[in-house]
Write a structure and sequence with these properties.
Helix content is 40%, strand content 17%. It contains eleven helices and 13 strands. Strands 3-2-1-4-5-6-11 form a seven-stranded parallel β-sheet, sandwiched between helices. Helix 1 crosses helix 8 and helix 9 (274-285) packs across helix 11. The longest helix has 21 residues, at 101-121. The termini are far apart.
């Protein structure tokens, strides 16, 4: 069921995906309120640069706020009648979760609970929230399907994202809150996060520094270009999930429900070996990388590969930006933002 959308709340608005989504929504004429705590997990200057482009729009309002601050969040919901909430705020990163686990509890668990409560009490028509391909954890059946069980996470980050899916389902069941979770697969592109592989590799290669190649380059990732992610989110926002009439407690389907709840993968459906990914960056830069081959890191999975059949069926859209195109656009942005300064 499609809904009319005028006012949207985007959490994590100064983040990579939050920035791109907000820009898209503003260009479509929607009123966007953005929340971000501007934490220093990575370069705050990059977040401020993203934010500066959004604040130039008259339909954009920014609130510096941590989602764990319940009273301040409740006040924002009371003052605005949001049609849709897109929760992208989270403590990101698999490896960082080994060092600072409490940051994930505060942001991904406590913060998400506050979002659920505010949506419940303020008539939000649809909550769309970011999950992650990390929830597939120890699964090895490929491609990863939302209809497969995902009860074996291999990092705390993944566990918090699975917890978000379960929490959202309970609110849909108890309070009729329509919820859709989106499992993003290795998002890359202009304005990307400095802790992600494409950013790290490009920076190091241009500076003549070695790059760390984990699992000796034999990792496989379903790299997904940012514009494809945003197109998928924008389409899902308008579609309130409907109960699956075929859902059965005797054989429960993890990806759907008897209530207004759905899970979708958004991935390129075309996994690439890490060493091939590096070669594509080398070709774009016209330089060879100095490679330091290392073992698989704790918390990492060897492969990701998205089954996007449900996304295609329900939205008519499938991510399809070629890796070479996406890398070229990132490198052009990187050189303009960092090298030309």
């Amino acid at each position: 069921m499609n809904i009319d959308i005028k006012r949207v709340l985007v959490t994590g608005v100064a983040g990579f995906i939050g920035y791109h989504l907000s820009l898209r929504l503003l260009n479509e004429g929607l009123q966007v309120t953005g929340i971000d705590n501007m934490n220093p997990y990575y370069d705050v200057g990059l977040k401020e640069s993203r934010l500066a482009q959004l604040t130039s729009h008259e339909n954009f309002t920014f609130c510096k706020l941590d989602l764990s601050g319940r009273e301040a969040l409740e006040d924002i919901f009371l003052k605005n009648k949001f049609d849709v909430v897109v929760n992208l705020a989270a403590q990101a990163g698999v490896r960082y979760s080994l060092k600072n686990p409490m940051a994930y509890i505060d942001s991904n668990i406590v913060g998400f609970t506050n979002i659920l409560e505010c949506c419940r009490h303020n008539g939000v028509k649809h909550l769309v929230f970011a999950s992650s391909s990390s929830v597939y954890g120890a699964n090895t059946k490929m491609p990863f399907s939302v209809h497969d069980n995902v009860d074996h996470p291999v990092s705390l980050y993944a566990a918090t994202k699975k917890a978000n899916e379960l929490m959202a389902h309970s609110y849909s069941h108890l309070f009729g809150l329509p919820c859709t979770g989106l499992r993003f697969f290795t998002v890359y592109g202009p304005w990307g996060r400095p802790d992600m592989a494409l950013f790290l590799f490009t920076s190091a290669i241009l500076e003549g520094k070695p790059i760390k190649v984990f699992n000796h380059g034999k990792m496989i990732r379903d790299f997904t270009y940012i514009d494809d992610i945003i197109e998928g989110v924008a389409r899902i926002m308008k579609q309130v999930p409907q109960p699956n009439p075929k859902w059965s407690g005797n054989s429960p389907d993890p990806g759907t429900s008897y209530t207004k709840y759905r899970i979708y993968n958004i991935g390129n459906n075309n996994p690439v070996e890490l060493i091939k990914f590096i070669e594509a960056i080398e070709d774009t830069l016209g330089r060879k990388a100095i490679k330091e081959f290392l073992d698989l890191q704790p918390g990492d999975v060897v492969s990701t590969f998205a089954d996007v059949d449900d996304l295609m069926r329900d939205t008519g859209f499938k991510p399809q930006t070629p890796l070479e195109t996406g890398i070229k656009r990132f490198v052009e942005w990187y050189k303009d933002y960092y090298v030309s300064k």
